[in-house]
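Sharing in case it's useful to others searching the archive later.

Someone asked me privately for the predicted structure of Phage holin family protein, so I'm posting the question and my answer publicly. Question first, with the sequence:
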Amino acid sequence: MMMTLLRWALNAAALMILPGLVGGISVTSFTSALFAALLIALFNALLRPVLILLTLPITALTLGLFILVINALLFWAASRFVGGFHVTDFWSALWGALLYSLLTWLVSLALGGKRR
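And my answer, the predicted structure tokens:
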């Protein structure tokens, strides 16, 4: 449980870094980042697999690159539901989602991956 809370807080901290790296993304407070990190995680766990399954033909045609579009759209959608977290356009969402994925992967790597 403690590891999950630590991972959530570090993912929120990673989200706080994004406005400095990508124009068009703003995060006003750490609380907003916490809620956004939680919503992004929920979207990735619940909606992403369904969307990937529904878009399987186009994903196959683009050799998997359409998954980047799905990630960007889910990142952008999360910004619509969380006050204090704003993404202005699709390209900001695309770069933000890519960098957020990289940062959360580094957090996971630093915390020991999925070992229990």
